[in-house]
Write a structure and sequence with these properties.
The complex is a heterodimer of chains A (444) and B (407). Helix content of chain A is 31%, strand content 22%. Chain A has helices spanning 2-27, 95-99, 118-124, 187-226, 261-270, 283-296, 312-317, 344-350, 370-379, 384-390, 393-399; strands spanning 30-37, 45-53, 56-61, 71-74, 79-82, 84-89, 127-132, 140-149, 164-176, 276-280, 300-304, 322-324, 355-357, 416-419, 430-435, 438-441. In chain A, helix 8 (344-350) links the parallel strand 12 and strand 13. The longest helix of chain A is centred in the middle third of the chain and has 40 residues, at 187-226. The radius of gyration of chain A is 28 Å and the shape is globular. Chain B has an 8-stranded mixed beta sheet. Chain B starts with a strand and ends with a strand. Classes of the chains: A alpha/beta (444), B alpha/beta (407). The A-B interface holds A 121, 326, 328-333, 338, 342, 359, 361-363, 365-366, 368-369, 372-373, 375-376, 378-381, 384, 387, 424-427, 429 and B 127-128, 296-301, 324-327, 329-330, 332-333, 336-337, 339-340, 345, 383, 385-391.
């Protein structure tokens, strides 16, 4: 029966060549030719070319040699910018997720719905990477994650479905200081908030110490085990009946402290393995956040910093970045943001503070306008260069993914947006969006 | 007596000595005449009058609180202050907000309160007023909330270092939507709201007052002056002398509002009526202005597209902020988003200036750069629809009320 035996061979041959073909098309370079390129990491390049291959940027510049087998795309007259980044998004998260109290070990990825249709709208405006933040309810609310968006039509064939791919999980711990509740606050409440956060970190220090003590005690125990047992003279030899004596006391094995997941995360923060994002609005709360970072040594990132311009020098001195936004207030006035000023982004930048600019949206859809939000900040005094950086490379660096995304540089992920005009031009349209070297919008 | 020298650019070289003589003479005479506020000469690379096409290298002269001239002809006003900017346009008009009076103008006990006046609750020291001025807003309509069928009188305010009342009773606010339904009192349904509105307007026609609250009905009987205030306020709306701002967040609200306007010959302005695009033909045939906004980052595509669709259907659109529910400086953001989602640029500029002024009945006073109008100007470093353009200066009533770098 030759045919059934041939069938598996034929199948193997076909599938092998098919995958080879797919692999080849994925490896086939793509060249976007003739646009004004804004890499963000360096000055704009006129009449430039970006070469993408295997999901990465292979070359970018004015005189790029385009390989013969490359797929060429004419983008003359267009402008190319890196894929945009929203450093604090509600995409994939429901209001309930954001409004319930959390704990240090609460991982935002456990509560996401990766099939949120809003992501397609966000992607269509050139936003390719977002940070998913746990809510703001409580002293410590959880850990967030950086995810990259994906096209919504190709997931059926993917082993890991969902409209986003995790780029960095457990990427930051979120805490709050001095937030008002129901638009009410008092110095006592703010003091309690500070004390709560401080004792949380102190507790984590003691937890870490308890393990260190255990390690030392274990070593001592093991050492003592090797020593011969010494006779213990407790007077029992004088008793002719020899009763009631205790056995000679040997070394006691120390008990290992029980690992607590939330404490483990806090210890990571103390060791600077993950940063701590503290949301603080008032100048005194910002100073308290800086003091906590000084005392416990964690890597601090400030969120909002509404009064930041009043203490900009202190923030800059410690090289603490700020996740700032929105430029224009939205919603009924809140006590925390009563002194909000769109001008403060410019003041902070001029003082040398690194910025990421976010929309602070109530829904995931708000992430669509991360560029417009930054533009509004530029209208109030931030330089346009700093504004673009705050939603690209600056945001990527603050999120800890600056080695992968945020700028058009060789070796970085091929995430980019082709615009019909400059990023600030009101007539500018998003024509193509590329993620990991694949066209998820246009470019086909 | 000020001597004014007009110098054509081509003749500049020949008449330079004459110009110098004029200037010296004028400076000498300056002490004799002190104008009420300093004359301003604004030189802009682009002037956007709104009432006409934009033009390059223009000069706007502001004198005694009014626009003295708008054009390209070089003028020299000795003693005038010269301000340069890339773009000069009319001061922005926000036809609907709760600035300075939020939560202070709602009387939910009675659904018919036409004698309430928003400017009676206006706090001229409200901090957000400064934000509005810094964003270029020179005139704003302040209003009662959306919770009463006939909610009260909107006032038009001039913003500046000291806000002024331009018109205490600029418009009457109506709400025949479900937002006016309230289980604590009548009405509890849309039909009930319309019936009440009809009764109140019909009653005003006949000189009677109507109230949905028993207490107020009793009071009205006891105090005849109160009666005349209520009917007097509504009579102005019936005559069309004062526009009727009708809160219509759904398309059915727009239909209902326009039918009421037909019945009582009102001058309707549909408020928060982006959804009225579904009945755009009806809106257009009534000549009603639609006040939309604010456009927010979380709005659905359909909401963001509605101003563009209304404008392209020939409907007059104006943008509002509903401040402080949104940033008082959000008019340009609303215009920017509307343009990105399909609104023509010139319609968007008109929507933050002249259309809002006309909706408030201020069309003859402000909203465009025309000779004789109030000198309300916004000077920018670039295209107003480009969010990165910075405010250089804001002029309200002929006075510089905001200047970049001097706050």
């Amino acid at each position: 029966m030759p045919i059934p035996r041939l069938a598996p061979l034929l199948y193997a041959f076909l599938s092998a060549s098919l995958t080879a073909g797919i692999a080849q098309s994925q490896d086939r370079p793509v060249a976007l030719i003739g646009a004004t390129i804004m890499p963000v990491s360096c000055a704009p390049i006129k009449n430039g070319t970006v070469l993408l291959q295997a999901g990465k940027i292979k070359a970018v510049g004015a005189n790029v040699a385009v390989p013969a087998n490359a797929r060429r795309i004419d983008v003359r007259g267009k402008v190319i910018i890196p894929g945009l980044i929203d450093a604090e998004s509600s995409l994939f998260l429901s209001a309930e997720e954001l409004n319930t109290a959390g704990a240090a070990d609460r991982d935002v990825l456990d509560g996401v719905d990766l099939f949120d249709d809003a992501s397609a709208k966000v992607l269509a405006r050139g936003v390719t990477t977002v940070y998913l933040s746990p809510g703001r309810r409580g002293s410590i609310t959880g850990v967030g994650a950086v995810v990259k968006l994906r096209a919504t039509d190709a997931i059926a064939t993917d082993p890991k479905p969902g409209y986003a791919r995790v780029l960095k999980s457990r990427s930051a711990l979120k805490a709050t200081l001095g937030l008002s509740t129901n638009n009410r606050s008092s110095s006592l409440e703010r003091l309690a908030s500070y004390e709560a956060l401080r004792s949380t970190f102190k507790g984590a220090q003691q937890y870490a110490d308890s393990f260190a003590r255990y390690d030392r005690a274990l070593k001592r125990y093991e050492l003592e085990l090797k020593l011969p047992a010494e006779p213990v003279d407790d007077g029992s030899g004088d008793d002719p009946f020899g009763g009631g004596g205790q056995a000679p006391a040997g070394p006691q094995k120390p008990t290992k402290p029980r690992p607590v997941p939330s404490q483990e995360i806090l210890v990571k923060a103390l060791k600077r393995e993950i940063p701590v994002r503290i949301e603080a609005h008032r100048a005194d709360d910002i100073m308290n956040a800086l003091r906590l970072a000084d005392e416990f040594g964690f890597k601090l990132i400030l969120e909002r910093a509404t009064d930041g311009q009043m203490v900009a020098a202190e923030i800059a001195r410690r090289k603490v970045p700020v996740i700032w936004g929105p430029a224009l207030m939205n919603g009924a006035p809140q006590l925390d943001s009563v002194d909000h000023s769109a001008r403060s982004a410019g003041s902070l930048a001029r003082a040398g503070v690194r910025l990421a600019i976010v929309t602070d949206g109530v829904t995931g859809l708000s992430s669509r306008f991360v560029l417009e939000n930054a533009g509004a900040a530029a209208g109030y005094g931030l330089s346009v260069g700093d504004a673009l950086r705050a939603v690209t490379l600056g945001a990527a660096e603050i999120l800890g993914v600056g080695d992968r995304v945020g700028s058009l540089e060789i070796g970085k992920d091929a995430d980019l947006v082709v615009l019909s005009a400059g990023p600030w031009d009101p007539r500018s349209r998003v024509e193509q969006v590329w993620i990991d070297g694949e066209a998820v919008r246009g470019g086909k | 007596m000020e001597r004014r020298c007009e110098v054509g650019s081509e003749a500049l070289g020949v008449k330079r000595w004459a110009l110098r003589l004029c200037t010296i003479a004028a400076v000498a005479l300056l002490g004799a005449t002190e104008s009420h506020c300093q004359t301003l000469v604004i030189r802009a690379d682009t002037v956007i009058p709104v009432s006409g096409p934009a033009f390059k290298f223009g000069i706007v002269v502001v004198r005694d609180g009014k626009i003295e001239s708008v054009g390209q002809r070089a003028v020299v006003w000795p003693g005038a202050r010269v301000i340069h900017a890339a773009v000069a346009m009319p001061g922005l008009v926000d036809p609907h907000s709760y600035l300075g009076c939020q939560n202070e103008t709602d009387e939910p006990v009675d659904a018919i309160t036409p004698d309430l006046r928003a400017c009676d609750a206006f706090d001229s020291q409200a901090p957000l007023l400064r934000k509005a001025v810094a964003a270029g807003v020179t005139a704003v309509g302040i209003a009662p909330g959306n919770g009463n069928v006939i909610a009260g009188q909107m006032s038009a305010m001039r913003l500046g270092s000291t806000p002024q009342i331009l018109s205490g009773y600029a418009a009457q606010k109506f709400s025949v939507s479900l937002d006016a339904a309230n289980v604590q009192r009548n009405p509890t349904s849309r039909a009930g709201a319309v019936a009440l509105a009809r009764a109140a307007l019909g009653g005003a026609r006949r000189g009677q007052s109507v109230s949905s609250s028993r207490q107020t009905a009793l009071l009205v009987g006891e105090f005849p002056t109160r009666l005349s205030e209520r009917t007097g306020a509504l009579k102005l709306v019936l005559d069309g002398r004062v526009p009727a701002f009708m809160h219509a967040p759904e398309s059915v609200d727009a239909e209902v509002a326009l039918q009421l306007a037909d019945e009582f010959h009102l001058k309707p302005v549909l408020l928060h009526a982006g959804e009225s695009v579904r009945v755009a033909d009806m809106v257009k045939s009534h000549g009603a202005t639609v006040v939309v906004g604010p456009l927010k980052f979380e709005d659905k595509d359909r909401t963001l597209e509605s101003p563009g669709r209304l404008a392209r259907a020939g409907v007059k659109v104006a943008f509002c902020t509903d401040a402080p529910l949104t940033d008082p400086g959000s008019l340009r953001m609303t215009a920017h988003l509307a343009v990105k989602y399909g609104m023509p640029a010139d319609a968007a500029i008109r929507a933050i200036t002249l259309n809002g002024a006309e909706a408030l009945g201020l069309g003859a006073r402000t909203g465009s750069l025309d000779k004789g109008k109030d000198a309300d100007l916004l000077l920018l470093s670039g295209d107003p629809l480009d969010l990165t353009s910075r405010v250089v200066a804001v002029i309200s009533g002929g006075r510089v009320v905001y200047e970049a770098g001097k706050q």
